């Protein structure tokens, strides 16, 4: 009986301590909390629109830097909102803060394991930088430009103009290929498939000139033409850099269009039949 009484006393004491850590909840405080949440959503929305607008107005070399400030601004805004709400309802002391942090961590760990994993991964990704807003990345089977960086994940805009949401916790398990890593330029590889009998020197000169004279090409970076032999014909690759990574597919279309016009002028032949479709890249 004595042991039971002590346990009950300890339980009541802990409950009282937990209640004492909370401030008095009033209609005024609830109203303030609602206003803070609504204002936070509004500020986040306005901040995203403002950064997107500014990034398109500044010189192109600064565009990605402006866009990459979005996750940090978002994190600061949310942190301020959370601290404001906590101060409304909790008496902040060293013990209360420690208890609140521990309780929140346990609750997130059990109830929202995957969500918590994504939050932690997103925070780490801010500093490690495997991807940033404006980067062209391949995550799993998806490739495109990162247009939004949220707490839980990123939004990827694919070449088909689809928006794909990918959780940050993919960085634990999936390889991430980053084409430009914060730079304005990203290498574009354009493929050409021609017959075995073509004049290799002529074709390589045509392809090099097509890239060199394109209005999209960044001439400060190398232009390389590579040849490999396949059972069905000759495979040429032009590796070059558009001045803006967003123009990757317009750039490749421009190269193919002008190269084909020159091929027609010189009678360059294409493979007549694919002997092995599985061998084509």
From TrEMBL:
Its membrane topology: Multi-pass membrane protein
GO CC field: plasma membrane
Ranges where the Mechanosensitive ion channel MscS C-terminal domain occurs: 189-269
A single MF term (Gene Ontology): mechanosensitive monoatomic ion channel activity
Keywords from the UniProt entry: Cell membrane, Membrane, Transmembrane, Transmembrane helix
Transmembrane segment boundaries: 27-47, 68-90
Superkingdom field: Bacteria
Localization per Swiss-Prot or TrEMBL: Cell membrane
Residue stretches making up the Mechanosensitive ion channel MscS domain: 114-180
Main localization of the protein described in the UniProt heading: membrane
Record-linked Gene3D superfamilies: 1.10.287.1260, 2.30.30.60
This protein's record includes keyword Ribonucleoprotein: no
Family matches, as InterPro entries: LSM_dom_sf, MS_channel_C, MscS_archaea/bacteria_type, MscS_beta-dom_sf, MscS_channel_2nd, MscS_channel_C_sf
Family listed: Belongs to the MscS (TC 1.A.23) family.
Protein name (record): Mechanosensitive ion channel family protein
Organism of origin: Oxynema aestuarii AP17
